[in-house]
Predict the structure.
Amino acid sequence: MIRDFIHVAAFVALVGWLTFLVWYSLRAKWWKSPEGRNVWGVASALVVALGMVNASYIWPDYAARDWVVLGVYVYLAALAVQRTAQMERRQRRGADRH
């Protein structure tokens, strides 16, 4: 029973993030700023990760699953590094103004 709720929650999360990603891609000028590109990257990584989770409920052992999982984790790690570097640059620029 709880697994059914988990599957529904994972699907709703996927649809929610996919909706945001499509809306953000079409409506915002995300490519014009580092922050916008990072938001797009994080949203796309969440869509991919949630897609991977949902796919595992339907196909527990699909072809190339390990490669997909590895790719998603590397992408998420790279985004974390990018965001951390971005935050550090912003804070340094802010410190230079004072």
